Amino acid sequence: MPFVRKRKAELERTDFEIEHDYAKHPSLEPKEAKDFKRERKDILFSEIEESAQDSGSDVELDIESTKPPPKMTYHRQKIEAQFKETEKLILTKVFGIFDSDHRVELDSKFNEEYKPVKARIQAGTASSKVVILNMVVECMINLHASCLSVKGTDLEALKRRIFIDKASQVLRLRFSEIGHESKILHWIHIKIVDMLPPYLLALYIDTLSSLRSKIPELLKHSLEPIIQQGTTKAAIALGLTTRKPWDPLTASPMNVLKQKLVPNSANAPLIIRIPSRPNIQNSATPPQMRRFRTWNSQLNAFGVVQNAPNQAPGQTISEYCHFVVHTVRNMVRKHNVSFYLGKM
Fold first, then answer.
1. Three-state SS string across 225-261, please?
2. Which of 55, 64, 273, 308 is the most exposed place for a label (fewest CB within 10 A)?
3. HEC sequence for 141-171
4. Are 251 and 74 in contact (CB under 8 A)?
5. Using alpha carbons only, what angle is made at residue 96 by residues 93 and 100, rounded to the nearest 5 degrees?
């Protein structure tokens, strides 16, 4: 039996193999397979629920330690109704659509009109106004995608308001590059109204409404010549920008004046408010927009508010900037003298 003797010789282990178990061939002496299966354990039920299932009795809830749900800062249904109302006005007054059958046709029309614009931009043959038109359209498409991402969430209205404010900042920069009285901007407004489908045009109107509440005089120069045309499609659509958009800052539950946040005078922060524009000549009390008035009044709930003086007549912008810096420095120095323990 030479084969059997050879097999036994192969099974003999050397001292090196005994000391270093990993050095032997795995086929010679296979290790026993370990059972890695663990016992079943439910981790989705607490001990109270398990005891309740065993006993079959009701469990007493600790109501005193349970915190009440946070109070909603706005009426969700009203805000959603306002968004839907804007889209409904766009469909009925601008497009004359009272059902959803023609919306697919409007989407295909938008794609057909927008393809040549993108082709001209990619080829590098587009003019400057076409490039700005493409930027505005892409901004509205991104805004629509952002609004869809938060649709149905708890803070949909607030997040949508933030998205619209960011889009209005982008449009403000683009419009400032052209000039608010330029005919190119008038052409962009008319082209946007003719090109965009209802769901994008509603966002564009909402963005212009937000922008018009912030810079009413500048938007008036660019929109009024088109609105005065009367019954045209662009005039009807841009006429809806006079509607005031919902602003969470002016909502009564979010008003910080009602939350008793007035700090002590010794620890109160110093808030220096600098005018956002030069002083209007021949006006003792220059007008302020509603949003600015509300914001300035609510600043008093957080600290001590001091107003920097307005620009004097005949004073240049550079002189006024040096004057404001000098005034702020004096206010900080005065604050450090009064409250030496909490210096800035």
1. HHHCCCCCHHHHHHHHHHCCCCCHHHCHHHCHHHCCC
2. 64
3. HHHHHHHHHCCCCCCHHHHHHHHHHHHHHHH
4. yes
5. 115
Q: Say what the pLDDT of residue 29 is.
A: 58
Q: How far is CA 250 from CA 217, 299, 316, in A?
A: 22, 13, 35
- What are the residues whose beta carbons fall under 8 Å from the beta carbon of 204, sequence distance 6 or more? 136, 140, 192, 196
Cα 271 to chain center, whole Å?
A: 26
How many C-beta neighbours within 10 Å does residue 280 have? 12
The pLDDT tens digits for 155-168 are 888 888 889 999 99
User: SS3 for 35?
Assistant: coil
- Cα 53 to Cα 39, 40, 49, 72, 215, distances in angstroms: 21, 18, 6, 36, 64
pTM exceeds cut of 0.85? no
